[in-house]
Amino acid sequence: xxxxxxxxxxxxxxxxxxAFVLLLGLVSLTNLQMDLLPKISPPIxxxxxxxxxxxPGEVATLITEPLExxxxxxxxxxxxxxxxxxxxxxxxxxxxxxxNLDAVREEIKDRLEFLQLPDDASKPMVVKxxxxxxxxxxxxxxxxxxxxELQRYVEKEVAPKLDSIPGVASVEVTGGPEKEINxxxxxxxxxxxxxxSKVLAxxxxxxxxxxxxxxVSKGDKILPVRVMGKFRNLEDLENIVVGMEWGEVLIPIYLxxxxxxxxxxxxxxxxxxxxGLDGINIxxxxxxxxxxxxxxxxxxxxxxxxxxxGDYNFTVTLNQGEIVQKxxxxxxxxxxxxxxxxxxxxxxxxxxxxxxxxITISIPFSLIxxxxxxxxxxxxxxxxxxxxxxxxxxxxxxNSIVVIENIYRHLQQGEELSEATKKGVxxxxxxxxxxxxTTMVVFLPVVFVGGLTGELFGELALTVSFxxxxxxxxALTVIPMLSFLLLKYQRKIPQFRVWGIYQVLLSYPMTxxxxxxxxxxxxxxxxxxxxxKLGREFIPEIDEGxxxxxxxxxxxxxxxxxxxxxxxxxxxxxxxxxxxxxSTRVGSRGGITGIPRTDRAEISVLLKxxxxxxxxxxxxxxxxxxxxxxxxxxxxxxxxxxMGSSELQMIIHGPNLEGVQKLTEDIMKALEKVENLEExxxxxxxxxxxxxxxxDRNKQALYQLTTASIAQNIKTQLAGxxxxxxxxDGKRVAIKLVYNKEKxxxxxxxxxxxxxxxxxxxxxxxxxxxxxxEVAEIRxxxxxxxxxxxxxxxxxxxxxxxxxxxxGTIQKEVDKVISxxxxxxxxxxxxxxxxxxxxxxxxxxxxxxILALFLVYMIMAAQFESLLNPFIIIFTIPFAGIGVIGGLVxxxxxxxxxxxxxxxxxxxxVVNNGIVLxxxxxxxxxxxxxxxxxxxxxxxxxxxxILMTALTTILALIPLxxxxxxxxxxxAPMAIVVIGGLLISTFLTLFVLPVIYYYLSTKDKF
Length: 1006
Hints:
By secondary structure, this protein is of the alpha+beta class. Among the domains are: 3-31 and 351-538 and 838-1000, Multidrug efflux transporter AcrB transmembrane fold (Up-down Bundle); 44-129, Alpha-Beta Plaits, CATH 3.30.70.1430; 543-636, Alpha-Beta Plaits (2-Layer Sandwich). Helix content is 51%, strand content 21%. The protein is built from 35 helices and 31 strands. Strands 1, 2, 3, 4, 21, 22, 29, 30 and 31 form a nine-stranded antiparallel beta sheet that branches. Strands 14-13-18-19-17-20 form a six-stranded antiparallel beta sheet, with helices on one face. Residues 743-752 have low confidence and may be disordered.
């Protein structure tokens, strides 16, 4: 049974199938998760190891380099880079896409088991990079309460409630002081009882455990035995027996007898403010399989209840859920507008409301069918999948247009509705199937292109393919059935009166065939001459209406001074009405490295409106020139946070640190000549001021002091020694041993008292005391803060902010500047970040484009059972490049990954009209028409469906091309490319393809 017969004989069955698909589609839609971007799992592992108190050079030699040798031969490894900082080694392993990361992780763990590291080093921790662990909400809590009370409220009341919300993975509270329990050591008391700080620390540690102790039987049960020694409260801690006093009666010596116990709060190494008010920050992460929008909405509902019930204010400084919702709404809005514009075209051409309604049904029905396939293949609603639907919405009616237009043609010839319906669908079934598969098949290489590009655009490709497949099934079943049921109520079949005009216009290229081809080739060459002038980019940035100002003060600047400069910036920003929220964080607790940075501040700015963030940054930049320190600006968006910014990034490679530092300085100076490149900086943070203690080996031996014992002595007396934790109300409180720093002369021994450091008293193994200055020389010196390496070489990274233009254009200017520098032997430069991603993306898509051409040709050859006919049609693809280049030039858009995807999409679209035209011309020639007569008649008959399918697709993409709504920035270049290419290809199909057909189709009949 043919499709035409099915539509006439089984309309009820088709209606029931429609109802089933509609129901299943709506259920699938309600269960689809929402995200900003597809779920991307970059093949990246990190190896983190600590070596307490070690300088960066020591960390590099003792930890990083041995680790690199062990993990550097892991399966599928693409690049290895490392960062050696004070006390911490971080190695980043980047693998080829498609590698089984879990298996590689276990392989690396097994290798590390046999590696010998210094005794003080921690066990290397192998971690997996997980984008879903990025914050989805950041909230600042403020109120007219002391900061400690505010912190206590957030930790005890707010955080537990938020943590219990379904979908919330973790709740992190920062911004307040950390509670500590200090044991203030009195050396005289310790000596009196024959104790020292090392023994004391050991006793505390050995008693702060819960340990298993095998099992016992009780009746028919086996019960585990546990020794409960972990401290439950401060009283437990105070009453540890640290010794015995001998006499007539043994008297226990308790910890509280030999130390002064103090509950206090550690010094602040970071501050937080929102709109000028001190506050506590809450950072929320979601579970990987949860619905982002739903999770953020639940959290916001909870904090709204708490805000109404208490005296505290909750300010949301980051809401990824809102960003996702607005972006999705923007794309949906563009989709609806595009569909509406496409329907107007249908109404204009068909001149029939009834026929327009019949075709219109194909849009929602195809979309709903797509949701079913999305749900069962695990896709989410995100910018890429919805962008795919917006891209394809105009094409969803193409097949239906061809079917109903052919039914019209048979009705105009006087045939009965049933016969016209049957012939109308059966005649074009093969043609529209072939055209649909040529469009779908171009996405196959994109899905398998691999890398970040494949991960990002694979879901777009699948979504478009799903929707086109659904539209084909609708056109072959639903449209004929509805036409058979409804078109009988149409009184008059509308006539298409442009045929005559087209025949007159077509006569000119058919008369002047050589001139037509010459002009076409000339215009094509002219367009190609503009190709090198096109800008290059990776992916357009999404404007989320927020940005960050990073303040970097001089190395070692204390928190108070950094805070004052941050306040100056805040006061300037408060003058701008466009700003909704100013959130400031001064200093940091060190993150993975654990090294506090008091010379940094981050000011996050949330604007009231989105869409002009870059322009606003340029405006405020001029008013921040008097700020001390270095300022850098960056727009916030999830893609940037995940994969790095669109800034220029250059990596310097060399054999040693000094040479790399010198070359970095020279290149940075040279880059100052490049226009539109500002905020030039490097990750070489200069030298770090430090105090070096140079030991006198003879005196060291005299007092029986080891290097390790001297270092530990100094650290304990200056900063205290963390020896364990006590848990109070579920919160971990550090236990520290600290020395009573007040000396007889009333001075303090601290970091600030450099001149008094020599008086610091060291305890010898025999219990004696000796001043540090007696066994060592103390001096001020400088050393590197961080050492970076990549693939075994020392590296540095230079970054620059592009204020105008595109990445590719700026990169060309940088290449000119660098070529004037004579790089020393053994040193080289490469591009990283967005430049590297762009290069890798273009390489993959170039291959995808070539494969798409072959696949399109093969499908057409199979349909026509001819090698020549597809060759004729495929000429429209390169000539469509005229429209592609013209569209990008006219709109000022750069050629990026999204635009390149548009070119690949065009490969499948532009041949569709050619297929319909050539297929019908061949049918006419089989009926006995002469070649030129068949060309003119075939073009006239297929004129309406060709114009309708092209214009519906073009108009449906206009909202996306204009970048209307939130989140449309990413798809705009793709839409522009498709519109430009389709405009030109439609013209070529109607006027130039007939000429090419005439020359290449040499036989009178087929």
